Hints:
Shape of chain A: globular
Distance between the termini of chain A: 41 Å
Helix content of chain B: under 10%
Oligomer: heterodimer
Structural class of chain B: mainly beta
Number of strands of chain B: 11
Number of helices of chain A: 0
Strand content of chain A: over 45%
Order of helices and strands of chain B: EEEEEEEEEEE
Largest interface: A-B, 25 and 28 residues
Amino acid sequence: AQSVTQPDIHITVSEGASLELRCNYSYGATPYLFWYVQSPGQGLQLLLKYFSGDTLVQGIKGFEAEFKRSQSSFNLRKPSVHWSDAAEYFCAVGPLNTDKLIFGTGTRLQVFP
Amino acid sequence: KAGVTQTPRYLIKTRGQQVTLSCSPISGHRSVSWYQQTPGQGLQFLFEYFSETQRNKGNFPGRFSGRQFSNSRSEMNVSTLELGDSALYLCASSLDSGQNNEQFFGPGTRLTVL
Lengths: 113, 114
């Protein structure tokens, strides 16, 4: 079955600290992987996506993610977190030929000054 | 360029009623998808429409239905509302169906069923 697991429900970091949000997936075919961010009262915004090629993907707002096929992981990283990064982050996987996305349960990021 | 708009933003209904939610995609986008977001189940895919045709359907009961019009605007309908239907309903649009096209999400319609 296709699924996405985000093991960390809630993460708290200090502003300026580095960040890594974990994502593991189960998918039968070549996965198309995404990270979205949702701020309170907002819809989802795409941070980055991986289809193929270079396994280190750069996104918006200084985020990057690394695809590791052997570990079925697609972890999101940021070297220095800003207070404005506080939000909920969702990892998702989807097939190539449709818009359907399977989301993880999300990780809520809290940033302390 | 205007983003995805959803109306209404907030809605309160009672059990047994029906509700219709509307989504206007970004101009030029032909694919619209709907998701339900709840604290317990997270984000779950409802439907995907492309050129007025339903391309994919999630695992929801028949009380949940949708449609897409020739101008790509989409509506979803929930009949015989249950308490568990309380959720944020998100709509997303993309230029064309398929993951090569970025999906843009609207702010959602928050439905409360009393």
